[in-house]
Amino acid sequence: MKSCLGSWLIIILMVVFFGCDSGVSPEDLEKIDPKFTALQSNIFDLSCSTKSCHGSDGAGNLFLTKDKSYAAMVNIRSSLDSKYYIVKPGNADSSYLYLKLTNPPSGVLMPKGNPKLSDAKIAAVKEWINNGALNN
What we know:
Layout: H1 2-18, H2 26-30, H3 36-48, H4 69-73, H5 96-102, H6 119-130
């Protein structure tokens, strides 16, 4: 009888702790603050600035390392398609960085050779650009 009661107690506790909907989606858990420092540490450092990409080799003459990325992107024309700024503050849809993450006008979707960024990460980049691409 004690064994059966103990088993039921464990099952009830598991349902209470693990079976309830917390109301938090996986995307909510991954939300990134749309500030430059958060984008740098959560996106550029992890997915873009490897040596062979936009790290020390600076593919496309774009360096996304912590010490160079902001100056290399904001109000700078793309060396691959000069009709675009890499980041045009206030206008993600005209920013080459955002387009390369969503719908590249040329070349391949970024990050090249890695999984596509999550919707939450792309949304943070878009919001940062649309909010003026501040160095914050």
